[in-house]
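U., I forgot to send this yesterday:
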Amino acid sequence: MTVFILVLYSGLLVAGGLMGYFTAGSLVSLVSGLLSGIAVFGASLAVMRGYRQGFYSAMGLTIALMVLFNWRYMASGKFMPGGMMAIVSALVLVALILGWVKGDLPKKKD
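Result:
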């Protein structure tokens, strides 16, 4: 379940970057969306292959993105996209923590 959530989250990040580029012409949105989406997808692949480091990387990336999106929401006062993605990031973080508590961590050691 954790891998599925991470893949969905990475897809949302990439889609958000593409949307920012095509609607506002923001190259920064495109690059940051692609890079963060690829990073989260890479972490999900590591989790799928059984590496605990992938789980910890996904958690760290999610926390960093949640803080960034929250900061962008607070700075702009606009719910879209910063506020929405801050909430999505918080939900992903909760799912990761629940997976951790339930023992949904990969079994291999890094």
